[in-house]
Structures are given as C-alpha cells and as structure tokens.
Amino acid sequence: MPELVRPVGLGLAARGSVSDTVDWAERARRTGFDSVWIHDSYFERDAVTYASAIASQVEGIRVATGALNPYTRDPVLLAMTVSALDEMAPGRIILGLGSALPLRLAQMGIAYNPAEAAERVEATVAKLRALWAGQRIPSGTEGFPPVEPMFPPVHHVPIYIAGYRTPMLQLAGRVGDGYLARPLESLKSFRSMVPKIRAASVEAGRPEDAVGIAGYLFGLVDETRREALNRAKREPFVIYMMSIQTDVAMRRAGFELELRDRINAAWRAEDYHGAAALIPDDLLDAFLLCGRREDVAERVAAYHDAGMDLPLLQPVVQIDEQVERLLAAGVEYGTEGKGAPILVSSESAARIATDGASATQASQMSVGSRLRRRAGAYYEIMRPFSFTASTVPVAAAGALAALGHRFHWGLFVAALFAALFLHIGTNVVNEIYDVRKGIDSITSPRASLALVKGRLSEREAFVLSGAAFVISAGIGVGLIVARGWVVAAFGVVGLLGGIGYTAPPLQYKYRALGLPLVFLLMGPLMVTGGYYVVTGEFDWRALVMSIPVGLLVAAILHGNEWRDIADDARAGITTFSIRAGRRAAHIGYVALVVGAYMALAMTVATKVLPPLSLLAMLSLPFLVRAVRSAELGASGQQRAIAMIDLETAQLHAAFGFLLVAGLALAAATA
C-alpha cells in the first residue's frame, strides 16, 4: 500500500452496480485513500444503500454519506440510519449534511426556502447529536410524547456541512466538524469561501482550524490534456452541468452569464453537439480537473494549498478505467509525486489518443506503446461490438443446416469470415464518410472517433476497408467454386450494400433507406445466403428465421439514428428517424426489438422452428434493459440512449447466439 503523506478520498455517485462500487472502495483502501464518499443521485439510486454495502464489506477505510439532507430524510430517520451504519463500520462513518438541490426538491414537491436552509440544517445537527447521545428530543407535534432513541449510542460521527451560500459556510464554522464543498466548485470560488469558515469558527470561540475542509473534485484523466478535454465535452453530464451553473458560480469563476445561457439554450433545444461546441476549454478547467494523471494531481494540490484538507476525487465518467486513473492521480497527489504507481489497466492503455502529443513525445514512446496506440485505433474504427450483426445471421443459418443434417464445417467457417470482413469494410467506410459529411465530430457520442481524433488517417482507413473487402471477395471466390454462381449474386449484392451504405453514389444511409435495406441485407440475404453456402439449397425456413434476426440488426441501426437525430439533421442528411420524428422513432425502436421476440414465438408456434429455439427467450433481461433505456430516452433523458447501439448489439448477440444454441441442441437430439 502506498504511504500517502496527504489524505485524499474517493467520491462516487449512487449510480450503477453496487458491487462495482464496493470493488472500487476496496481498491481505494488498498491504494491508501482515507475515505470513500457516496452522494445521492436523485432519481437514480439511494446513497445510504451504497454506503451500507461498502461499510459492511470493506474494512480499514472511512465511509461517508455526503451530502444527505433533512428535507428528504427527517432528522430522526437520519440518526437511526447513521446508528446502523456505525455498527457496520464502528468509528469509520462520516455524515455529510446539506440542504439539497432546490430544483430536485421542487420536482418532488418538497417546500424549500433558501433563507431558512441554514437554520433547518443547524437544528438537524442539534437533534442528531442529542439522539446519538441517547437523549430525548421534543416531539415534532405538540401534545405527543417526546422522541426517545431506542438504538445504542454511536461512536463519534463527524458532521460535514455542505453548501456554498455564506450562511452555510458560517454554520460549518460554528457547529460543524467539517465543511464539504460541492462538486464543480471553481478554485477561485473555493479560495473566497475558506476565510468565511475560519472566521465563523473564531467568532464562535473555536480554534481557527476547528473545521476540516473536504470537497468533491470531478476529474477526467487521459493520456493527454487535449484528449481529456475532448472527452469531457462529449459527456452529457458535463454539458448539462455547464448549462446550469449558478450566477454566483459563474461570476466567482470569472465568466459571463451569457456564456452559460447560450449553452443552456442549446441544451434545452436538445442540440447537445451545439451545446458542447460552445464550451471553451477554460470553462471546463474552472470547474473540472482534466488532463494527464500528473496534471490532475497538480490541480488537486492547488485546492489543497487553498485550504482543502481532504480532496475527494470523483470520476466524471463512473467506469472502471476512470476510477483506476483517478486513484493513480490521487496517489500522485498524496505522495507529492514520489513513487506513484500507474494503475491504468492494459485494456485502458489501448485507448490512448495521439492528438495533442508533440513529435518529441511520440519519439520518446516505446515501440510497444506505439503499437498499442495503432492497434487500439484499428480496433476502434472496426467497431467489434457490432460484429454480432454479421456473425449471428451466418451462425443461425449454419445451425438450421445442422438441424437438417446438412452442415459443412469448412463452408460454414468460410461464409462466417466472408460476412465478418464485409462488415469490417462497411464499418470503416461508414466512419470515413460520416467524418467527411461532418456528422462525426470530437463531441459526438460515437463508438469510434479514430478519424476525428487523428489516430488514423483517412488514407489508412481506406486501405483497411479495401483490404477487408478484398479478403471477403477472395473468400467469396472460393465459395463460388464450391457452390456455383448463385453465391456470386449474393456476394455482389452484399458488397454493393456494404460499400454503398455511406459511399457515393448510393449513400442510402443518408436517404432514409438504411433501415429497410440493412434489415434485408443482414437478415434475409445473410441468413438465406449463408444457408445456401452451407447446404447448396434454399429452404423457406431460413427466410422465416431471418425475420427476428434482421429486426434486431435493424434495431441496432435505428437506435443509432434515433440518438443522432440532431447531428444528422445538422449535417443535412435524411434518416428514417428524422422523417418520422422522435416520438415515432421511439415507437419504432420498441417495435423492432419486441417484434423480434414475437416473430420467434410465432415461428415456434407454427412449427417452423423447434421448441428449443425458445432458448433465445433467456435474453429477455437484455430486452428489458433496452426498452427501459428507450423509455428514458423518450422522456428527454438523452444520456439514457447514449450507448443504445451498443446495448442493442448486446441484445442481438444474446438473442442470436441463444437461438443458435437452441437449434444446435435440437439438431443434436433429433
């Protein structure tokens, strides 16, 4: 465990997998971090639940709930909750206590008066301390018995007061054990707040340093500062937070309110790309910590020098890679730059960006690092997550052939690779022309940004796509020799469909024809073609089976187009989603994914496919997740469908390969 000479904590939102959060807390403990802080993510999940999981499973690190509030949780309930947490982690619990976001309280119909917030929090502190000491407190309703705590007294639980207004700062100085600075507090603003806390402590007869000062510092770490800033601008959370910064926060940080208002107008118009483009680097730098590990550590040190005793590093993107990198930045800060380990995994290292790196830096990289960069760029532009769209149709055709005892391993494998390389070429050509059209930019929520980030040149991308098409065609020639010229017809249609998806002169993706043609190409064409290659015959069952498979492939594309309506319309292209509108696009997406399951059920009910084909129904949890994301996206939460193409591809893979497994089992038991 590294020995940190300066304490540092990890901040996490009550979001995502509870088990992941516990794992990150354990890593923070092993790394030498002082504490893990969990804050409520309203309308997502509850902070206390996450804190309980950490407190009960991770030893040797302090656990903080920060910040809870007396508006959504009565002081008596807060006292009871903390008592239970203290039993799980004796002497290791910290309570962050604030007044909550007025916007969220209003959404829940909870009355809030800013002028009374500090008074209410102060009364809550008094009640908590009395209850924890085993004392009775008066009833909240006149004429009823007093409240008597029936839980054992807790160990000392420090209370950190959260809030940015002056009355809350003064309250922290008077009665708090600590003060908790809110997320996205600029350094300029923070410097002006510390003296007010210290002065209030002295005025209350306490030592000037009686109050420990902690604060959430949102960070995004990457291999270059440029890449970190670009990535931050692609995050819906960051765009949203920049659009709702308060007048006080903007003025304290030195920015005009008009900048915030323009970002907010674009956000409300659902022009997320436009909103991101309005955000200057210095605005991000004021409120976020973006850059390399050492850049972030240096910024943390600046907050420490301004009076922050316990910086709490919180990832902008709460994923494993960013948690690892922030832990490394925390060690860099905590050890004052001496002996900080690099905690980034090899998988994360493969996603290194080259833009912003100087020629000198590039020349100093090891051969292994350069190879990883290049391999990562090729991997990214090929979009392997989508390969299910080409492998499932051929695999399903092969399984159906096995059901009829006509399976041929050699021809099946050849067909599978022909389809895969055709798909790779199509993906690369798609990115080339999306960049040329201006659809893809550095702030686009795309699965690949290899070209716009300069990780690959357009020429290199063309070479890659050409090589993929040539390999696919070469395999196709072998299949023509084995099965005749019918295979050539399938191959020519597939090749034209792949190249013409975005390349001129067809460019059918840009003419609102992508959805029906992708359904035909990746559904009926691939399944029936694959079946013919393997067996040398046509079978109407292959055509019927291709319908649910094709519907889910179409859903991958449709989800992508639905998400990208604003970017596509700005680029002057036409997609089905643009023509139909957001509401119809949402209905269409749900119809495609649900329709695939209905189609499969009908094929089994009519005895076209054997009952074991229903093994595909085990993929229903993926369907539920996709529909849930779609419902949230339809309600205006664009972030919920940011990765809808990836989620739908995972649904397609689960459905497709379970279908293949069911057919294979039926073939084996026939």
Describe the structure.
α14 (293-305) packs across α15 (320-334), α19 runs parallel beside α29 (644-669) and α20 (409-436) packs parallel to α22. The protein has an eight-stranded parallel barrel with strand order 1-2-3-4-5-6-7-9, surrounded by eight helices. The chain has helices spanning 18-31, 47-57, 75-88, 102-107, 114-132, 166-175, 187-203, 225-233, 236-243, 247-253, 257-268, 272-278, 281-287, 293-305, 320-334, 346-349, 359-364, 367-382, 388-403, 409-436, 458-483, 485-499, 514-535, 540-563, 565-570, 576-580, 582-605, 620-634, 644-669; strands at residues 9-13, 35-39, 62-68, 93-97, 159-162, 178-181, 212-221, 289-291, 310-315. 60% of the residues lie in helices and 7% in strands. With 670 residues, the chain is of the alpha/beta class. α3 links the parallel β3 and β4. The chain folds into three domains: 9-222 and 292-344, Alpha-Beta Barrel (TIM Barrel); 224-288, no CATH class; 376-669, Farnesyl Diphosphate Synthase (Orthogonal Bundle). The longest helix has 28 residues, at 409-436.
Topology of helices and strands:
Layout: E1 9-13, H1 18-31, E2 35-39, H2 47-57, E3 62-68, H3 75-88, E4 93-97, H4 102-107, H5 114-132, E5 159-162, H6 166-175, E6 178-181, H7 187-203, E7 212-221, H8 225-233, H9 236-243, H10 247-253, H11 257-268, H12 272-278, H13 281-287, E8 289-291, H14 293-305, E9 310-315, H15 320-334, H16 346-349, H17 359-364, H18 367-382, H19 388-403, H20 409-436, H21 458-483, H22 485-499, H23 514-535, H24 540-563, H25 565-570, H26 576-580, H27 582-605, H28 620-634, H29 644-669
Parallel strand pairs: 1-2, 1-9, 2-3, 3-4, 4-5, 5-6, 6-7, 7-8, 7-9
Helix pairs in contact: 1-2, 1-15, 2-3, 3-5, 5-6, 6-7, 9-11, 11-12, 14-15, 19-20, 19-23, 19-24, 19-29, 20-21, 20-22, 20-23, 21-22, 22-23, 23-24, 24-27, 24-29, 27-28, 28-29
